[in-house]
Amino acid sequence: MKDAIHNVQQEIANYTLANIQDTEKFRIEFLGSKGKIKDLFGLLKSVPNEEKKQVGQTLNELRILAEEKWNQAKAQFENTSTKSEGIDLTRTPEDALIGSRHPLSLVRSEIIELFNRIGFTVSEGPEIEDDWHNFSALNFPPEHPARDMQDTFFIQKGEKEMALRTHTSSVQVRVMENSKPPIRTISPGRVYRNEAISARAHCFFHQVEGLYIDENVSFADLKQTLLYFAKEMFGEKAEIRLRPSYFPFTEPSAEVDVSCTICNAKGCNVCKYSGWLEILGCGMVDPNVLEASGIDSKKYTGFAFGMGIERIAQLKYRVNDLRLYSENDVRFLNQFTPGV
Ligand code: DAH
Questions:
Q1: Which of 7, 82, 144, 221 fits a disulfide with 140 by CB distance 3.0 to 4.6 angstroms?
Q2: What is the distance in A from the centroid of ligand 1 to the CA of 244?
Protein backbone atom coordinates (compact mmCIF):
# COMPACT_ATOMS: atom_id res chain seq x y z
CA MET A 1 0.00 0.00 0.00
CA LYS A 2 2.81 2.37 0.94
CA ASP A 3 4.49 1.73 -2.39
CA ALA A 4 1.27 2.34 -4.28
CA ILE A 5 0.82 5.68 -2.50
CA HIS A 6 4.41 6.62 -3.17
CA ASN A 7 4.05 5.82 -6.87
CA VAL A 8 0.95 7.98 -7.27
CA GLN A 9 2.70 10.78 -5.38
CA GLN A 10 5.60 10.61 -7.87
CA GLU A 11 3.24 10.56 -10.81
CA ILE A 12 1.48 13.67 -9.55
CA ALA A 13 4.74 15.49 -8.97
CA ASN A 14 6.02 14.63 -12.46
CA TYR A 15 2.80 15.34 -14.34
CA THR A 16 3.28 18.31 -16.68
CA LEU A 17 0.28 20.59 -17.01
CA ALA A 18 0.89 22.71 -20.10
CA ASN A 19 -2.65 23.71 -20.97
CA ILE A 20 -6.29 23.44 -20.01
CA GLN A 21 -6.66 20.04 -21.71
CA ASP A 22 -3.79 18.54 -19.68
CA THR A 23 -5.37 19.96 -16.54
CA GLU A 24 -8.67 18.25 -17.24
CA LYS A 25 -6.95 14.96 -18.02
CA PHE A 26 -5.07 15.23 -14.73
CA ARG A 27 -8.31 15.79 -12.81
CA ILE A 28 -9.93 12.71 -14.32
CA GLU A 29 -6.84 10.56 -13.80
CA PHE A 30 -6.23 11.45 -10.16
CA LEU A 31 -9.26 13.20 -8.69
CA GLY A 32 -12.10 11.72 -10.70
CA SER A 33 -14.66 9.24 -9.28
CA LYS A 34 -12.69 6.47 -10.98
CA GLY A 35 -9.36 8.16 -10.42
CA LYS A 36 -6.20 6.81 -8.83
CA ILE A 37 -6.70 8.50 -5.45
CA LYS A 38 -10.22 7.12 -5.15
CA ASP A 39 -8.83 3.66 -5.91
CA LEU A 40 -6.28 4.08 -3.11
CA PHE A 41 -9.04 5.10 -0.70
CA GLY A 42 -10.82 1.89 -1.78
CA LEU A 43 -7.81 -0.11 -0.68
CA LEU A 44 -8.02 1.38 2.83
CA LYS A 45 -10.40 -1.47 3.80
CA SER A 46 -7.60 -4.00 3.59
CA VAL A 47 -5.20 -1.96 5.74
CA PRO A 48 -4.81 -3.33 9.28
CA ASN A 49 -6.85 -1.33 11.78
CA GLU A 50 -3.93 0.08 13.74
CA GLU A 51 -2.47 1.58 10.51
CA LYS A 52 -5.76 2.86 9.09
CA LYS A 53 -5.54 6.28 10.70
CA GLN A 54 -1.99 6.89 9.53
CA VAL A 55 -2.60 5.66 5.96
CA GLY A 56 -5.88 7.58 5.76
CA GLN A 57 -4.05 10.77 6.71
CA THR A 58 -1.36 10.17 4.06
CA LEU A 59 -4.07 9.62 1.45
CA ASN A 60 -5.81 12.84 2.45
CA GLU A 61 -2.54 14.72 2.08
CA LEU A 62 -2.09 13.13 -1.35
CA ARG A 63 -5.55 14.26 -2.38
CA ILE A 64 -4.85 17.81 -1.19
CA LEU A 65 -1.58 17.81 -3.13
CA ALA A 66 -3.35 16.76 -6.33
CA GLU A 67 -6.17 19.26 -5.78
CA GLU A 68 -3.72 22.09 -5.23
CA LYS A 69 -1.79 21.27 -8.39
CA TRP A 70 -5.04 21.06 -10.33
CA ASN A 71 -6.45 24.30 -8.90
CA GLN A 72 -3.29 26.20 -9.64
CA ALA A 73 -3.12 25.03 -13.24
CA LYS A 74 -6.82 25.66 -13.75
CA ALA A 75 -6.55 29.22 -12.49
CA GLN A 76 -3.56 29.87 -14.72
CA PHE A 77 -5.06 28.55 -17.95
CA GLU A 78 -8.56 29.84 -17.40
CA ASN A 79 -7.12 33.27 -16.79
CA THR A 80 -5.27 33.44 -20.09
CA SER A 81 -8.18 32.03 -21.99
CA THR A 82 -10.62 34.68 -20.69
CA LYS A 83 -8.12 37.45 -21.36
CA SER A 84 -7.59 36.46 -24.97
CA GLU A 85 -11.26 35.75 -25.63
CA GLY A 86 -11.96 36.95 -29.15
CA ILE A 87 -8.38 38.06 -29.62
CA ASP A 88 -5.80 35.61 -30.83
CA LEU A 89 -2.60 37.12 -29.52
CA THR A 90 -0.49 34.75 -31.57
CA ARG A 91 -1.89 35.86 -34.92
CA THR A 92 0.25 37.91 -37.31
CA PRO A 93 -1.13 41.45 -37.07
CA GLU A 94 -2.90 42.94 -40.07
CA ASP A 95 -1.84 46.40 -41.25
CA ALA A 96 -4.17 49.10 -39.99
CA LEU A 97 -5.92 51.02 -42.79
CA ILE A 98 -4.44 54.48 -42.63
CA GLY A 99 -6.02 55.93 -45.76
CA SER A 100 -4.08 57.87 -48.33
CA ARG A 101 -3.22 61.45 -49.21
CA HIS A 102 -5.31 63.02 -51.93
CA PRO A 103 -3.24 63.39 -55.13
CA LEU A 104 -3.91 67.14 -55.16
CA SER A 105 -2.55 67.42 -51.60
CA LEU A 106 0.52 65.44 -52.60
CA VAL A 107 1.24 67.71 -55.57
CA ARG A 108 0.43 70.86 -53.58
CA SER A 109 2.91 69.83 -50.85
CA GLU A 110 5.55 69.02 -53.41
CA ILE A 111 5.15 72.42 -55.09
CA ILE A 112 5.30 74.23 -51.74
CA GLU A 113 8.37 72.30 -50.70
CA LEU A 114 10.34 72.86 -53.87
CA PHE A 115 9.64 76.60 -53.86
CA ASN A 116 10.46 76.78 -50.14
CA ARG A 117 13.91 75.49 -51.00
CA ILE A 118 14.58 78.63 -53.09
CA GLY A 119 13.17 81.03 -50.52
CA PHE A 120 9.46 81.33 -51.37
CA THR A 121 7.08 81.53 -48.42
CA VAL A 122 3.41 80.51 -48.50
CA SER A 123 0.61 83.08 -48.37
CA GLU A 124 -3.14 82.68 -48.53
CA GLY A 125 -6.19 84.79 -49.20
CA PRO A 126 -9.99 84.46 -49.02
CA GLU A 127 -12.01 82.40 -51.50
CA ILE A 128 -14.83 84.95 -51.41
CA GLU A 129 -13.13 87.94 -52.92
CA ASP A 130 -14.04 91.50 -53.85
CA ASP A 131 -13.82 92.97 -57.32
CA TRP A 132 -10.72 94.96 -56.44
CA HIS A 133 -8.51 92.01 -55.51
CA ASN A 134 -9.81 89.57 -58.12
CA PHE A 135 -10.05 92.01 -61.06
CA SER A 136 -9.47 95.76 -60.77
CA ALA A 137 -6.11 95.79 -59.01
CA LEU A 138 -4.95 93.20 -61.52
CA ASN A 139 -5.56 95.57 -64.41
CA PHE A 140 -8.67 93.83 -65.80
CA PRO A 141 -10.44 96.29 -68.11
CA PRO A 142 -14.13 96.87 -67.20
CA GLU A 143 -15.33 94.96 -70.26
CA HIS A 144 -13.15 91.90 -69.68
CA PRO A 145 -15.17 88.68 -70.16
CA ALA A 146 -14.05 87.27 -66.78
CA ARG A 147 -16.17 89.97 -65.16
CA ASP A 148 -19.19 88.42 -66.80
CA MET A 149 -21.69 86.22 -64.96
CA GLN A 150 -21.01 83.56 -67.58
CA ASP A 151 -17.51 82.97 -66.29
CA THR A 152 -17.60 84.01 -62.66
CA PHE A 153 -19.81 83.12 -59.69
CA PHE A 154 -21.01 86.34 -58.08
CA ILE A 155 -22.63 86.42 -54.67
CA GLN A 156 -24.29 89.13 -52.67
CA LYS A 157 -22.68 89.79 -49.31
CA GLY A 158 -24.86 92.40 -47.60
CA GLU A 159 -24.71 95.50 -49.79
CA LYS A 160 -21.60 94.35 -51.54
CA GLU A 161 -21.34 92.17 -54.61
CA MET A 162 -18.56 89.63 -54.13
CA ALA A 163 -17.11 86.93 -56.37
CA LEU A 164 -15.80 83.46 -55.73
CA ARG A 165 -12.20 84.08 -56.77
CA THR A 166 -11.50 82.94 -60.30
CA HIS A 167 -7.76 82.67 -59.72
CA THR A 168 -5.20 82.87 -56.93
CA SER A 169 -3.71 86.00 -58.53
CA SER A 170 -5.96 87.87 -56.07
CA VAL A 171 -3.56 86.81 -53.30
CA GLN A 172 -0.70 88.61 -55.11
CA VAL A 173 -2.54 91.87 -54.65
CA ARG A 174 -3.14 91.21 -50.94
CA VAL A 175 0.51 90.33 -50.35
CA MET A 176 1.74 93.43 -52.19
CA GLU A 177 -0.68 95.62 -50.24
CA ASN A 178 0.47 94.21 -46.92
CA SER A 179 4.22 93.81 -47.30
CA LYS A 180 7.25 95.54 -48.71
CA PRO A 181 9.68 94.13 -51.29
CA PRO A 182 11.63 91.94 -51.48
CA ILE A 183 8.65 89.60 -51.82
CA ARG A 184 9.00 85.93 -52.69
CA THR A 185 5.80 84.02 -52.14
CA ILE A 186 3.58 81.28 -53.48
CA SER A 187 -0.17 81.13 -52.85
CA PRO A 188 -1.90 77.78 -53.20
CA GLY A 189 -5.68 77.67 -53.06
CA ARG A 190 -9.06 76.76 -54.49
CA VAL A 191 -10.63 78.79 -57.28
CA TYR A 192 -14.06 78.78 -58.93
CA ARG A 193 -15.36 79.24 -62.45
CA ASN A 194 -18.78 79.02 -63.93
CA GLU A 195 -18.07 76.04 -66.17
CA ALA A 196 -20.12 72.98 -67.08
CA ILE A 197 -18.50 69.97 -65.42
CA SER A 198 -16.77 67.59 -67.82
CA ALA A 199 -13.59 65.53 -68.02
CA ARG A 200 -11.67 68.68 -68.97
CA ALA A 201 -13.40 71.43 -66.98
CA HIS A 202 -14.78 71.82 -63.47
CA CYS A 203 -16.53 74.57 -61.54
CA PHE A 204 -13.80 74.49 -58.91
CA PHE A 205 -10.14 73.60 -59.07
CA HIS A 206 -6.82 74.53 -57.47
CA GLN A 207 -4.02 76.86 -58.39
CA VAL A 208 -0.66 77.96 -57.10
CA GLU A 209 0.31 81.55 -57.73
CA GLY A 210 3.92 82.69 -57.56
CA LEU A 211 5.20 86.23 -57.02
CA TYR A 212 8.73 87.62 -56.85
CA ILE A 213 9.33 91.36 -56.42
CA ASP A 214 12.61 93.09 -55.80
CA GLU A 215 14.99 95.54 -57.46
CA ASN A 216 16.28 94.35 -60.84
CA VAL A 217 14.16 91.23 -61.17
CA SER A 218 14.32 90.22 -64.84
CA PHE A 219 12.59 87.92 -67.27
CA ALA A 220 15.73 85.73 -67.12
CA ASP A 221 15.08 85.19 -63.38
CA LEU A 222 11.55 84.14 -64.21
CA LYS A 223 12.70 81.66 -66.84
CA GLN A 224 15.36 80.16 -64.59
CA THR A 225 12.90 79.78 -61.71
CA LEU A 226 10.42 77.99 -63.95
CA LEU A 227 13.11 75.70 -65.37
CA TYR A 228 14.08 74.80 -61.79
CA PHE A 229 10.42 74.07 -61.05
CA ALA A 230 10.00 71.86 -64.14
CA LYS A 231 13.12 69.81 -63.41
CA GLU A 232 12.25 69.32 -59.74
CA MET A 233 8.69 68.37 -60.58
CA PHE A 234 9.11 66.28 -63.72
CA GLY A 235 12.73 65.13 -63.58
CA GLU A 236 16.16 66.31 -64.67
CA LYS A 237 15.39 65.74 -68.38
CA ALA A 238 12.45 68.18 -68.39
CA GLU A 239 12.79 71.24 -70.64
CA ILE A 240 10.58 74.31 -70.85
CA ARG A 241 9.38 76.48 -73.72
CA LEU A 242 7.87 79.96 -73.40
CA ARG A 243 5.26 81.21 -75.86
CA PRO A 244 4.19 84.87 -75.96
CA SER A 245 0.71 85.36 -74.50
CA TYR A 246 -1.53 87.93 -72.89
CA PHE A 247 -2.71 88.46 -69.30
CA PRO A 248 -3.98 91.84 -68.04
CA PHE A 249 -1.68 91.73 -65.00
CA THR A 250 1.65 90.91 -66.66
CA GLU A 251 3.63 92.55 -69.47
CA PRO A 252 5.21 90.80 -71.25
CA SER A 253 3.28 87.60 -70.65
CA ALA A 254 3.99 84.02 -71.63
CA GLU A 255 2.54 80.58 -71.52
CA VAL A 256 4.91 77.85 -70.48
CA ASP A 257 5.09 74.34 -71.88
CA VAL A 258 7.09 71.47 -70.41
CA SER A 259 8.57 68.77 -72.62
CA CYS A 260 6.14 65.84 -72.65
CA THR A 261 6.94 63.65 -69.67
CA ILE A 262 4.92 60.78 -71.07
CA CYS A 263 6.67 60.22 -74.42
CA ASN A 264 9.93 62.07 -73.59
CA ALA A 265 8.99 64.71 -76.17
CA LYS A 266 8.84 62.16 -78.98
CA GLY A 267 5.13 62.79 -79.60
CA CYS A 268 2.11 60.96 -78.21
CA ASN A 269 -1.65 61.45 -77.90
CA VAL A 270 -1.31 63.28 -74.55
CA CYS A 271 0.92 66.01 -76.05
CA LYS A 272 -1.01 65.73 -79.34
CA TYR A 273 2.22 64.71 -81.07
CA SER A 274 3.81 68.12 -80.38
CA GLY A 275 6.21 66.91 -77.65
CA TRP A 276 5.05 69.79 -75.38
CA LEU A 277 2.45 70.18 -72.63
CA GLU A 278 1.11 73.52 -71.42
CA ILE A 279 1.55 73.89 -67.66
CA LEU A 280 1.30 77.54 -66.60
CA GLY A 281 0.96 81.23 -67.36
CA CYS A 282 3.51 83.84 -66.32
CA GLY A 283 5.00 87.24 -66.98
CA MET A 284 6.57 90.39 -65.58
CA VAL A 285 4.17 92.09 -63.18
CA ASP A 286 2.56 95.00 -65.03
CA PRO A 287 3.67 98.37 -63.54
CA ASN A 288 -0.02 99.28 -63.19
CA VAL A 289 -0.48 96.30 -60.87
CA LEU A 290 2.54 97.27 -58.75
CA GLU A 291 1.26 100.84 -58.43
CA ALA A 292 -2.30 99.72 -57.62
CA SER A 293 -0.93 97.83 -54.63
CA GLY A 294 1.32 100.66 -53.48
CA ILE A 295 4.67 99.44 -54.82
CA ASP A 296 6.97 101.88 -56.60
CA SER A 297 7.21 100.57 -60.16
CA LYS A 298 10.26 102.74 -60.90
CA LYS A 299 12.24 101.09 -58.15
CA TYR A 300 10.90 97.55 -58.27
CA THR A 301 10.16 94.95 -60.88
CA GLY A 302 8.81 91.45 -60.45
CA PHE A 303 7.53 88.33 -62.05
CA ALA A 304 4.43 86.25 -61.43
CA PHE A 305 3.18 82.89 -62.52
CA GLY A 306 0.08 80.78 -62.00
CA MET A 307 -0.46 77.06 -62.47
CA GLY A 308 -3.29 74.57 -61.98
CA ILE A 309 -2.58 71.85 -59.43
CA GLU A 310 -4.96 69.44 -61.22
CA ARG A 311 -3.00 69.92 -64.43
CA ILE A 312 0.35 69.15 -62.77
CA ALA A 313 -1.19 66.13 -61.01
CA GLN A 314 -2.66 64.98 -64.32
CA LEU A 315 0.78 64.97 -65.91
CA LYS A 316 2.48 63.40 -62.91
CA TYR A 317 -0.08 60.66 -62.32
CA ARG A 318 -1.71 60.48 -65.79
CA VAL A 319 -5.19 61.24 -64.55
CA ASN A 320 -7.25 62.03 -67.63
CA ASP A 321 -10.57 63.06 -66.05
CA LEU A 322 -10.84 66.11 -63.77
CA ARG A 323 -13.98 64.75 -62.11
CA LEU A 324 -12.00 61.95 -60.44
CA TYR A 325 -10.41 64.46 -58.09
CA SER A 326 -13.68 65.33 -56.38
CA GLU A 327 -15.72 62.13 -56.56
CA ASN A 328 -14.20 60.50 -53.46
CA ASP A 329 -13.98 57.11 -55.15
CA VAL A 330 -11.68 55.04 -52.95
CA ARG A 331 -10.63 52.91 -55.93
CA PHE A 332 -9.05 56.06 -57.34
CA LEU A 333 -7.78 57.46 -54.03
CA ASN A 334 -6.24 54.19 -52.79
CA GLN A 335 -3.78 54.31 -55.65
CA PHE A 336 -2.00 57.17 -53.91
CA THR A 337 -1.30 55.27 -50.67
CA PRO A 338 2.42 55.64 -49.95
CA GLY A 339 4.34 52.46 -50.69
CA VAL A 340 1.50 50.81 -52.65
N1 DAH B 1 -4.36 83.89 -63.20
C2 DAH B 1 -4.12 83.14 -64.42
C3 DAH B 1 -5.24 82.14 -64.65
O4 DAH B 1 -5.98 81.88 -63.77
C5 DAH B 1 -2.81 82.42 -64.34
C6 DAH B 1 -1.66 83.35 -64.35
C7 DAH B 1 -1.12 83.75 -65.54
C8 DAH B 1 -1.15 83.84 -63.17
C9 DAH B 1 -0.04 84.59 -65.57
C10 DAH B 1 -0.08 84.70 -63.17
C11 DAH B 1 0.46 85.07 -64.39
O12 DAH B 1 0.48 85.20 -62.08
O13 DAH B 1 1.52 85.92 -64.41
O14 DAH B 1 -5.35 81.63 -65.74
A1: 144
A2: 13
